[in-house]
Write a structure and sequence with these properties.
By secondary structure, the chain is α/β, with parallel strands linked by helices. It contains 28 helices and 18 strands. The longest helix is centred in the middle third of the chain and has 21 residues. The protein is elongated. The termini are far apart. About 55% of the residues are buried.
Length: about 675
């Protein structure tokens, strides 16, 4: 009869799989998995509540590998504990089409809670997940019925600590008292530019005091290669319910490798056949590459333990369902990501069309939120210290604090952290996060937007003050390249609406979209309501449509946002019949069928594009022979009206542009 292997062998299995997979791929990072092997045993074998048979179990603990370059640690853990990740995939590490890419990617292999690799974002996602757990617990738990009760764990290294985003998110975590967030810091003193301890040339932070200042419990000086010590630290962390916990674990990178352990050489390159053979000898691992003894497999297998854990929770849920049937039904809906039965955003659009208000689109957005927030309890909003400017708070918004509950986060001046926390909220399930800042500050959070697009998350960004129209704050705050830049991110839908109706349509599209994020680019200044019949209103959702046509049109003027009014004014001034096309979302328009796109912008029809931003982007629609009224330099500090005239955003200049392309 096979007996489970001792935990030392279980740790060595992780080392062997990591060094063998990296060697087979001739690419990768063996050092971190080898250095964190015992830490992984302490967490995954003794403390983590999860079910490999059902990776989507709602009450599972979440695990985030923030130092994602050590992905073979996670892949090995998933394989050995019983997830549907066969050894064949580990052998295909970093190969085209495998489920084991260089950095963990959400959606490829079961059990990958988030895509990591850009350092600091994983721990920030974990903060968002912990917030989600706390909010769901406050909303759904009842006396005697702890339906939502799980933890979020994260591994992170020196690189995550150095990235500024870790400061933003971890400071917020301490402020919110996220007691079920537990992070383990792999303190190995090595990074790419270092060898033996030379990291002190550029990294001398007192991590303990830093996190204590944030309001975390810090368990320092733990031997990361002592499973018992790590287990004690994790259990202590779990007992703390009012503060997040950081466990500082001292480790040796590449532990077990005779000549490369504790050197930069172990970080990001294969150890080499000679060093691997010596490592096998040093740790007593005499098995061929990718071969794991049955005793080790038995020790790691968590399938039955996971089934039992979920069955216990299912019993809790059944009792909860009896006592609170409506809440149980709502909980299941939220976790599935379905919208409420009967919810339709059509009424938002109809109401905006009936009111016909001339207001800023940021205000139109707030008016839309006044309807959405009470109708959708899954909406969790926030702003990076610009709530009064972004207008992201509705009357039904309740601020989230240490006590739990609420649906609105004051993120503080932490744009990047906000973006990554929003990703964590969306990844956890049960929420649709939205967050606001000025469009120009989207640069601060750009990589978190990219990660949301890469993962296909339903996150919504409210970017206000979208052009020169913000006026006197000047070029530091006036976005010029930003709309075009955001449109270049694959799978990110960008909407720049021209009035209240287009704003309502944009919000509806963002809420209904399940497979990717949406950015709403909104004006500071008032924009006129544009009249449309019902047929035209219905076409807005297609991203681009004919707003105003003319018989025998000889040219098309394409415009977005605040510049649509210029296109309509120019149409009236021209003695040439022209068509005005409003294109609030180029990405959505581009996904329409060819017949529709050609009907809106017929082939061969000369085109002018107008947008208060850089011009190159619009060449894909107007061609080299067309014209673009835009701005290819930074702005100035002056009232908005003066700026638009100064930079040529006038009906007369649009008329001139049309005449230049129509013969």
């Amino acid at each position: 009869m096979i007996s489970p292997a001792p935990e030392r062998e279980m740790a060595d299995a992780l080392r062997a799989l990591a060094m063998d997979a990296v060697q087979a791929a001739n690419s990768g990072h063996p050092g971190m998995p080898m250095g964190m092997a015992e830490i992984a045993v302490a967490l995954w074998h003794r403390n983590l509540s999860h079910n490999p048979v059902n990776p989507a179990w709602a009450n599972r603990d979440r695990f985030v590998l923030s130092n994602g370059h050590g992905s073979m640690l996670l892949y090995s853990l998933l394989h050995l504990t019983g997830y549907d990740l066969p050894m064949a995939e580990l052998k295909r590490f970093r190969q085209l089409g495998s489920k084991t890419p260089g950095h963990p990617e959400h959606g490829l292999a079961p059990g990958i809670e988030t895509t990591t690799g850009p350092l600091g974002q994983g721990i920030s996602n974990a903060v968002g997940m912990a917030i989600a757990e706390k909010l769901l617990a406050a909303e759904f738990n009842r006396p005697g019925h702890e339906l939502v009760d799980h933890r979020t764990y994260a591994f992170l290294g020196d690189g995550c600590m150095m990235e500024g985003i870790s400061h933003e998110a971890c400071a917020l975590a301490g402020t919110l008292g996220l007691g079920k967030l537990i992070a383990v810091y792999d303190d190995n003193g090595i990074s790419i530019d270092s060898d033996k301890g030379n990291i002190v040339q550029w990294y001398t932070d007192d991590v303990r005091r830093r996190f204590e200042a944030y309001g975390w419990q810090v368990i320092a000086g733990v031997d990361g290669h002592d499973i018992e010590a790590m287990d004690r630290a994790l259990r202590k962390a779990k007992r703390e319910r009012t503060k997040p916990t950081l466990i500082c674990a001292k480790t040796v990178i590449g532990k077990g490798a005779p000549t490369k352990a504790n050197t930069g050489a172990a970080h990001g390159a294969p150890l080499g056949e000679k060093e691997i053979a010596a490592t096998r000898e040093a740790i007593g691992w005499q098995h061929p590459p990718f071969e794991v003894p049955d005793g080790v497999r038995l020790g790691w297998n968590a399938r039955e333990r996971g089934r039992r854990a979920e069955r216990r929770w299912q019993r809790v849920f059944k009792e909860y369902e009896k006592a609170h049937p409506d809440l149980a039904k709502e909980f299941l809906r939220r976790i599935k990501g379905d919208l409420p039965a009967g919810f339709s955003p059509a009424s938002l659009v109809q109401e905006a069309n009936q009111k016909g208000e001339t207001i800023a689109t940021r205000k139109a957005s707030q008016n839309t939120l006044e309807v959405l927030v009470p109708a959708l309890p899954e909406l969790v909003g926030g702003s990076a210290d610009l709530t009064g400017s972004n207008l992201t708070m509705a009357k039904a918004s309740k601020v989230i604090g240490k006590e739990g509950g609420g649906n609105y986060l004051f993120y503080g001046v932490r744009e990047f952290g906000m973006g990554a926390v929003m990703n964590g909220l969306a990844l956890h399930g049960g929420f649709i996060p939205y967050g606001g800042t000025f469009l120009v500050f989207s640069d601060y959070m750009r990589n978190s937007l990219r990660m949301a697009a890469l993962m296909g998350l339903r996150t919504i960004y409210v970017f206000t003050h979208d052009s020169l129209g913000l006026g006197e704050d000047g070029p530091t705050h006036q976005p010029v390249e930003h709309a075009a830049s955001l449109r270049m991110i694959p799978n990110l839908d960008v909407w720049r609406p021209c009035d209240t109706v287009e704003t309502a349509v944009a919000w509806a599209a963002a809420i209904l979209r399940k497979n990717g994020p949406t950015a709403l680019l909104l004006s500071r200044q008032n924009l006129p309501f544009e009249k449309r019949d019902e047929q035209v209103v219905n076409q807005i959702q297609r991203g681009g449509y004919v707003l105003s046509d003319a018989p025998g049109a000889r040219a098309a003027i394409i415009a977005t946002g605040s510049e649509v009014q210029l296109a309509l004014a120019a149409q009236k001034l021209l003695d040439i019949p022209v068509r005005v096309v409003s294109m609030p979302s180029t990405s959505v328009f581009d996904r329409q069928d060819e017949n529709y796109r050609n009907a809106v912008l017929p082939k061969g029809m000369p085109r002018v594009a107008i947008e208060a931003g850089v011009t190159d982007f619009w060449r894909k629609y107007v061609g080299l022979e067309g014209a673009v009224v835009g701005i290819d330099r930074f702005g100035e500090s002056a009232p908005a009206g003066d700026l638009f005239k100064h930079f040529g955003f006038t009906p007369e200049n649009v008329v001139k542009a049309v005449r230049s392309i129509v013969t």
